[in-house]
Structure formats: C-alpha cells, structure tokens
Amino acid sequence: MTTNFDEIIDRSNTNAAAVEGFQDYLFDADVEITLNHAPEDLVSMWVADMSFASAPAAIAAIQKRLAHPVFGYTMNFDNAYYDAFVQWTQQQYGWQFAREALLISSGVIPALFDLVDQLCGVNETALTLTPAYGYFKHAVTHHHRELRTSPLKVADGHYTIDFEDLQRQTADPAVRVLFLCHPHNPTGRSWTDAELRQIGEICFENNVIIVSDEIHCDLLRVGKQHTPLAKLFPDSDQIITCMAPSKTFNLAGMMTANIIIPNPELRALWQARSHPFVSPLGLAAAQGAYENGHDWLQALRAYLDKNFNVLAATLKQELPQAVFQIPDATYLAWVDLSAYLPADLNLTKFFLEEAGVIMEGGEMFVADGGTRVRLNVACPTSTLLEGLRRIVAAVNAYKTSV
Ligand SMILES: Cc1ncc(COP(=O)(O)O)c(C=O)c1O
Q: Distance, CA 166 to ligand 1 centroid (Å)?
C-alpha cells in the first residue's frame, strides 16, 4: 500500500470534524453565518488533520487487529508498544526514556485537562507563549483558572521568545506549569536547542514544571531535526513530554497519545486520576505506524514541503504584502494579512462567507493572533490551489469594496 497524496478523498458522511463539525467549533451559537457556497463546495483548511489517507502501516495494523473478534477494555500491558515507540524516538531524535515513564492517553487534549488538575494547586495556574493552541486555554479555564500568557516577539514573520518576560512570569509562585508547544502551533517554529535550554533553565530555577507538547515533532521540513526538550535535560524529571501518532500518521480519530512522565510522584498522581483505558484499534494503529511508517512519513514530508513552496510562490505573486515564512515544522501556515484586512475583522467568518474556505483566523489562538490566518496545507496540491484562488479573490474583492 502506498499513498497518492494527490487523491481527493470525499470525507462526507464520516463525521469528520474537518468538513462537518466546523460551525460549532469555530463560532459561538449566536453568530449568524451566511454561506455563499454550497456546504459540499467549501474548501476545508482548518482543523489539524490531513485530507490524505492515513499511513498504510497503521491501516494494515488495524486490519490485523480486526482479525481478533474481542474489543474489550484495553491497556498498555505488554512491552510491544513501548518497544516500537522507543525505537522510533531513538531513530528519529536519538532519545529514549524508561518503560515505566510511558503512559497512554486517549489524546493530548484530555491529557492537558488532566495535567492542569493534577499539577496545579488551588491558587496555581499555567503559562504559555502566545499566540497559542486554543486547548491550552480551554484546559486551564475548565478548571476555573486563568491562563497566563507570554507574547512571542515577531519580526518579518519570524517568532522568538521574550525571555525577559518568561523569566518575570515564571518567577510568580502562582505559575506552576509551562505549556510549551514544540514545534509551535500556530507559528510553526521548532525551538532551537539554545532556546530550549534557556526555557528549561528559567523554568527549573523557578520551580515550574514543563508540559512539552511535541505532537507536531515528526512533521518537520525535510532536512530539519527535532530535539525533544527532555533530551537536553537528562537529569531533570520536571518535564512531561506529550507525543502522538495522530498528526504524524493522520490518526487523530484513533484517540491514542503518549504521555511521558519520568517523575514517580507525578506519575502516581496521573495513575490515580486519569482514565486508564485505551482503544485497542488505536493502540494497534500506533504500534504499526511506529514500526513500519517511516518511508511513508518521508514521502509525506516531501509532499508538504512542495505544498509550502506552492503557497509561498502564490502569496508572493498574488498577495505580495502578506507576511509569511515557510514554517520549520507542522503542516500549518501562519499568514499575516494585516496589509490587506482590518484588525477588527473576524477572519474565520470573513473567509468562510466570502471565499467558502474554512480556516482559523488569529482570534482563535488565545491572544496575539493579530490579523493572521492559519491554513492547513495537508491536502492535495489541487485543493490548496483552489483554496488560495478563493482567498486571493476574497482579499482583492475586499480591497475594492472599501
Ligand atoms: C499543539 C497541539 N496539541 C494537541 C493537539 C491535539 O491532540 P490530540 O488529538 O492528541 O488530543 C493538537 C491538535 O491540533 C495540537 O496542535
């Protein structure tokens, strides 16, 4: 089995969030949307899954597991999954961790919710770098706390960390946890080893635990290399690393994520309070993908690189004042359209209504999103080109209407 990344796969009638679930997620109930396109004609470039078939190695492993007819309660009892995953982390990032540190969750999102509950005392909370992945905020507000934010610095589309601010904010004893996103959604930055060392040193000095969400770590541009934060701090057990096969192999619906908790007390808390069961199909899919998905991932990365080049060339030609840099990682493009569109425009609504393109505007990313959009380019190049044609037309129509 190989994957033809150019194939357009109809996802209707599969309960796919990408095509059927956008309205509830992206808009409050009282926001009225006027679609100028038929629902089946919308181009979906929002939620972070891919329009491609999932990795064949995962599909084959699911099929093999289906040959056994019992799908009862399942946990990660034996060593087979650990062996497959740790071989992956060793090969991909030169990093290993102990068997007992590996816990399986039904996703990084549920893990974030659980970790706020387990790590933060009543008057404690988490900090993150903004703009940020929305669930960092939801996980904190769900537990009746306010997320602290440290704005990233940006120059010509390149994001860096404001270390002075990070130092100042982590010095507040109320900040117990840093939610680090590495590589970073939505900016696409893969933090350098020097940046990671500085983040770690600041946090440990201030007794702040780091939850390092590395879910996008396998989706780097060809030639780039991921360094897990924990690899740089082999003597610290104050880093909880979250990785998953969901982005890498397009398995988000399989509800399986790796939460690596080296500290025995923190692990005991997790074991006492988190839901212990996993999906048997999800576990099989993840193991199969880690064992046999390497070549497919290489082909995927090359295809994503090509799509990013198409995007960069189109923006340069059609919207030359858009600020965009091809990201180090992820399949998400983060494009500044402030030269064309006003700061108070809800971009998610604007592009849905005017272009028939579903994507997320800066307002969806906790804070400091600005007049930017996040476009998911993990789709056939023909779909990307159609989405871009519509986006460009909508921006040009806006320009002439004001
Ligand atoms: C940074 C980040 N963390 C977590 C998730 C979701 O994780 P999961 O599907 O394992 O719950 C996403 C999905 O977009 C993400 O971008």
A: 23
If asked whether residues 219 and 72 sit together in one domain, one would say yes
Whole-number pLDDT of residue 24: 85
- C-beta of 250 in contact with ligand 1 (< 6 A): no
d(CA 373, CA 360): 6
Check residue 250 and give its pLDDT. Answer: 98
Give a yes or no: residue 3 inside a domain.
no
pLDDT for the residue 400: 85
| Residue carrying structure tokens 């680090």 | 180
Taking the C-alpha atoms of residue 46 and residue 21, their distance in angstroms, rounded to an integer, is 11
Q: Are 82 and 61 contained in the same domain?
A: yes
237 and 106, same domain (yes or no): yes
Chain-centroid distance of CA 32 in Å reads 28
Is 359 a pocket residue for ligand 1 (Cβ < 6 Å)?
Answer: no
With a cut of 90, say whether residue 330 has pLDDT above it: yes
Q: Which domain holds residue 124?
A: 56-293
Answer with the one of 293, 315, 337 that is the final residue of a domain. 293
In a domain, 10, yes or no: no
Residue 15 DSSP class: T
Last residue in a domain, options 241, 260, 293: 293
**355 in contact with ligand 1, CB cutoff 6 A:** no
Question: Quick check: CB of 373 below 6 Å from ligand 1?
Answer: no
Closest atom of ligand 1 to CA, residue 133: 1
- For residue 120, give Cα distances in angstroms to 127, 174, 178, 247, 394: 11, 9, 11, 28, 45
What is the pTM for the complete model shown? 0.97
- Residue 29: the pLDDT is 86
Distance 361 CA to ligand 1 centre (A): 18
Same domain, 212 and 174: yes
Q: Within this chain, do residues 243 and 299 fall inside the same structural domain, yes or no?
A: no
Is the distance from CB of 188 to CB of 327 less than 8 angstroms? Answer: yes
Q: In what order do the strands lie in the sheet with 239-243?
A: 102-105, 257-260, 239-243, 209-213, 175-181, 125-130, 148-151
pLDDT tens digits for range 264-314: 999 999 999 999 999 999 999 999 999 999 999 999 999 999 999 999 999
Examine the domain organization and report whether 138 and 210 are in the same domain: yes
- Asked if the structure places residue 4 within a domain, the reply is no
Contact 365, 380 (CB under 8 A): no
